[in-house]
């Protein structure tokens, strides 16, 4: 392809993305005025359209799978890409679940009368236009569209190129459902080009897009964050810790430390490093080592941990910095809570960290002082999840500091404006 | 200055800013663990130090004023720059006021038990390190430092070069006060170079700075927003509207429309465009025109407004887009609330917009549908202010959508993390 052709293509992608942006901005204006009943009707209509389009969706998915196989995608990637009837059922159920959730938009809290006589409150309103960039799982198309729609936001969805036909088929269901319910069909748009320039444009048009939510691998998210000219709500690492304090109930500590590591390995809220107070290392580490060995978890310990349990590999500096997402665990013996919190301060990705303790003051200190999006006492890090937190649904887990930290549900997709009710008050 | 010397200087500024950043990051870690009593003691100590250093501060300010006069600063700028005893008293009073405000850090809300047995709540915590970039008023140094300190944030303050000696003198008071109270002296640092490269570095070190708050003219803020690699909480225009509906009480409408325009001209929450429903234009516009004429306000009207009040200048497209900050008012006659909201949607800077009405349904629609940081019924736009809203203090007014909209007080300088209290729960 010569330079001139490339330039023409990029120009077209820019124009195309600008059109999507303009349409999304217009849709956002009507969507924030759309009542709950209409939004729910649209979600249910999309569910019906998806049910009616099963064969169409599965055929499109077959094409993606065939192309993926031809392109050498591995089994795990092909599995994430596949849309079976079970997964279509789950998407339909998900749409109905989102329809059943309370609508956060319009909620007013803190309404109070002020000395001037005005009454002031805080009203929850949509963010506006949300751009979502994700990778191979086409189910994300439905999840993201439904959460944005329910929270009154227009969205522009950019899925992975390997799922392009599946996403286009799902986009048709969304469009038909929106149309059936009388909602602007540009309320949820799927980017119909696999050209990478589309992402570059999507993240640099603040006039049309209010926030970007990238979902996927760390390199994708880092690249988007550094290039975006729009606020980004992102999730980077999940290097989660459990600290077992000297006062911990050892049965409880074992149950939590085993669950946090072995319940699922490839998830961001799995424990990656276990910290054990020196005074109980000899009592708890052998029990834990036996339990981990039973689960096939490879242990990598500091020198003091290895002095207690001989069959551990040595942990290096790199281990403290690694999100394994695998049956591997780093173990360090520490001297009390200050030492534990210093380790967490230095190495935690500020996602989720837990203490197991029966000491009231240490529990309070850990909760107050550990600076992570979820801080837990006597519970498994695996609870850091939108469903477990009762959000009803989750668009991701934010490891950012501003706007929203931790699991992001409908509320995280909204913002608040001030509302003032007066009776003719003026400033004196 | 040759190129080599410049390069050396810039290198030094980068190193210097990096050192400030590292020190601020370390201070933020201790500051978020500092209790309310200590933070208040530090605020009071800074107030005492400032009181004791009056002559030192005024001498430094004299040097700034002399340099400013020599550099041709106009009277308004020199006035903003001046630190009189009255202004020093106001800064001291401000420090005591911030000390008296409730500490938002550590507040837990929404604590509830979930089906798994865990108890989940949302705890308010500091943002971390805040970079504040401002222009000529040296009082901002104290205001910003006190609000950041009370909310548990470390801050790096970069004031205008014209106020450099004043800011350095105030910085000494801050340092002495922090030290006296046993708080890390790098909790609040004033950038001690006027080199512009310092700003460039400050806004591009996300490893040390969590958020940037620029205060000043629109061009400064736009430049910082477009170049920052850190989230920015910003205030751009204040193009505020008042819409007088057909059902409005005319006395109330007149009082609000006059107050919103004439109470102060150079402020962001002043009305810049008045919208009047066509059905009452003939009754309200002549009264308003007489009142505005009495205040010396220049009126620029649409054709329909000028058909009612002859002595208006014609308004152009540009008038609807202008934040006058002056005794000038654009006036447009509209056909009902939809027409008014369409105008607001198109031209409002989404700062503050108000309706004057006695119609229940229209009041509800306006509040729900107008997308501005403050939306008012029957009150002057001039109420959009941190003090009037009971925040106790204000670091600015955000016209952004994420994190915080409208007046930003202590709460806007914090974020929330999840806290989980368990009794040994694990994921099943």
TrEMBL record, chains A, B:
**What is the designated name of this protein?**
Gamma-glutamyl phosphate reductase
In which family does this protein belong, per the annotation?
Answer: Belongs to the gamma-glutamyl phosphate reductase family.
Q: What is its main location?
A: cytoplasm
Q: Which PROSITE patterns match?
A: PROA
* InterPro entries documented for this protein: Ald_DH/histidinol_DH, Ald_DH_C, Ald_DH_N, Aldehyde_DH_dom, G-glutamylP_reductase_CS, Glu-5-SA_DH, GPR_dom
Q: Where is the Aldehyde dehydrogenase domain?
A: 20-293, 310-384
Arranged from A to Z, the UniProt key words for this protein are:
Amino-acid biosynthesis, Cytoplasm, NADP, Oxidoreductase, Proline biosynthesis
GO CC annotation: what is one?
cytoplasm
Instruction: Give a GO biological-process term.
Output: L-proline biosynthetic process
Q: Which Gene3D superfamilies match?
A: Aldehyde Dehydrogenase, Chain A, domain 1, Aldehyde Dehydrogenase, Chain A, domain 2
Per UniProt, subcellular location reads as:
Cytoplasm
Say what the protein does.
Catalyzes the NADPH-dependent reduction of L-glutamate 5-phosphate into L-glutamate 5-semialdehyde and phosphate. The product spontaneously undergoes cyclization to form 1-pyrroline-5-carboxylate.
Q: Name one GO molecular function term.
A: glutamate-5-semialdehyde dehydrogenase activity
Q: Which reaction does it catalyse?
A: L-glutamate 5-semialdehyde + phosphate + NADP(+) = L-glutamyl 5-phosphate + NADPH + H(+)
Q: Which Pfam families does the record match to this protein?
A: Aldedh (PF00171)
Q: Which PANTHER family match?
A: DELTA-1-PYRROLINE-5-CARBOXYLATE SYNTHASE, GLUTAMATE SEMIALDEHYDE DEHYDROGENASE
Pathway involvement of the protein, from the record = Amino-acid biosynthesis; L-proline biosynthesis; L-glutamate 5-semialdehyde from L-glutamate: step 2/2
Tell me its EC number(s), please: 1.2.1.41
